[in-house]
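Q: Convert this sequence to structure tokens.
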Amino acid sequence: MTGAFERIYQVVRRIPYGRVATYGQVATLAGNPRWARVVGYALHANPDPVGIPCYRVVNRLGEVSPAFAFGGGNRQIALLQEEGIEFGPDGRIDLERFGWNPLYTP
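A:
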């Protein structure tokens, strides 16, 4: 599984400042669209939270994880807000606005 984790970390390192990706998106880009749960496991075991910005990964609805491994959901929200990512009144991120499109680089 370590090979899978490293592929996941390579994808997460590419998520730009001010953008988020979903677990499923990371899984697909890492080579297996069925790895969404594996992405969660990998991020929970993240060996380098500074170099691998796991807080930029959210669920398919644009919600943060209450089990965020590095300080809980509130910490994840704070880190994303520091990058200018906004949350709607429902607590979700607008993925159309803040979602990462790896095929488009401004």
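DSSP finds five helices and two strands in the chain.
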